[in-house]
Amino acid sequence: VGNSWRRLLFHPKGLLAVMVVSCGFAGNVTGGVLIWRDYSDSRRQTEAAGREAAHLFEEHVDRAIDGAELVALWFAERAVADGGMARAVATPGARASLEAMVRAVPAVGNITLVDAEGRVAFDLGGFHPPGTSLVDRDWVAALRDGGRDGFIGKVLFDQSRGSYSFTAARRVISADGSFLGVVGAAVEVGYLAKFFESLPAAADSTLGIYRLDGEALARLPLRIDDIDRTMAGDPLFVEHLSQSPDGSYSDQWSRLVSYRTVESRELVVWVAQGDGEAMAQWRQRSLRTALVLGAMFAVTAALSWLLAGRIGREYEAAAQLAQVNLDLKRSNADLEQFAYIASHDLKEPLRNIASYVQLLQRRYHGRLDPDADAFIGYTVEGVRRMQTIINELLAYSRIGTARPELAPVQAGATVSAALSALKNVIAEAQAVVEVESKLPVVMADGPQLTSLFQNLIGNGLKYRRDDARPEVAVGCEDGGSQWLFHVRDNGIGIDPQYHEQIFEVFKRLHARDRYSGSGIGLAICKRVVERHGGRIWVTSEPGKGSTFWFTMNKAEAPDA
Length: 560
Ligand code: ADP
What we know:
By secondary structure, the chain is of the alpha+beta class. Helices cover 51% and strands 20% of the residues. The chain has twelve helices and 18 strands. Strands 1, 2, 3, 4, 5 and 6 form a six-stranded antiparallel beta sheet that branches. A five-stranded antiparallel beta sheet has the order 8-7-11-10-9, sandwiched between helices. Strands 13-15-16-18-17 form a five-stranded mixed beta sheet. Strand 5 (163-173) and strand 6 form a beta hairpin. Helix 2 (12-82) runs antiparallel to helix 7 (276-364), helix 7 runs antiparallel to helix 8 and helix 11 packs antiparallel against helix 12 (521-531). The longest helix has 89 residues, at 276-364. The chain is rod-shaped. The two termini are 59 Å apart. The model has no long low-confidence stretch (mean pLDDT 87). Adenosine-5'-diphosphate binds at residues 459-460, 463, 489, 491-492, 494, 502, 507-510, 517-523, 546.
């Protein structure tokens, strides 16, 4: 199992798949991290904008209520100085200066003076006729009870002016400590709204001013249902305010809420933001990033797919070729082995046959009839030939099984050895053998190189013309990366159509009675040369002699 896994993994397709998957993974992780970073940046930006808006609005509300209280205090002082609520505005001059005062504070829409019994003593806007009882107004009730000097009443809708306002009220106490009444200054929600609309975060935000008891004083954009609405059940009051006076959180509509407490006034200012510009941009950027990454991955995957197909086919082909080569090598080795064993094992019985036939010839020569003598003679001859063939076959297969031991060898020395083995043949043929004086050093197996020269020179002598004295020349030239040797004769030559065939085993061109031989010599030569990393071929014209050429590797460090 482990092996097949490894094969799969190291298969080019497997590697490619691993690469594509890891690329995709890395791309996704990188993209994810980028998008997440961008998200938290955008979120932080939105949060900061929300906090900023809450902060600005808090200041603005504080300032507006400050103004209203200032006006109320001013009225209260006048009332105390003049000794009663109604007296503070008794003269037209006093009234005019009060009106000017109210006009100077844009947040304030109206002023109402209420006496100790809770009845209207004066109403600047004229909405409440004097004497109207306002005891049920929360700010009147709260301040008549005593215990506190100021109170902010809940939001009301004024039909006649068509506007929302809440009341900042002050208690009025005379110098001797008696309760004179209450001054109420109406803070215009419209005035706050104008400021809110000028804030950059206003576009998709909701804003609220609540009393700490949960009463909604104003919510922007303005909504009619905010009258008498309590927010006490809102998570802001239930969870967050108790933990921290200022802060931010995500509400159930995943809006980002920032809030700030105005401690001195028992108010809280609250800004809820939709996703806003920053998040919209983030969403666009993320979409683009995701699309680009996706497209890149798709292109990579598609290209890899194409590549995988091609590589896969080549890989299979290479693997098949390697397998075929392996099979071929194995069967060649088997054949080699077979030829070797067969020729080796045939030698023994053949020797017996030869001995007995020779014995027969010696003992019974002339004692049987002439036919028998002739037959015995043929048998002896046949057995001898068979021995020669088997010996050569054995030599041939030995070259196949044993690796040549390559070492720097003096080519001249191997030629001399070959000539001394051939000296009888040379003498008998009265041949002239010319050897180039300076033959090089080659990388070779000495005995094999000797047998190569012996075979080639021997053939040159054997296939001689009757009408000429045999001449054989051995030489060498520089063939570039290798040495190029030649053995030239002036013999019978070879028809070009046989130039290839003669190097095959048992391939002969002549009858045995004309030229003896087994047809293995040149096959041995070819094998020796090829085992040495060279090539052998012949150039010849019939009747004009032949030249056998072969190449041999140069010795790595040629000795001079
Ligand atoms: P053989 O034992 O018959 O010489 P070889 O393998 O040495 O076998 O040679 C194969 C054949 O090539 C020979 O039968 C002969 O016809 C031809 N041949 C080889 N050498 C020469 C040569 N020098 N000149 C002409 N023919 C040759």
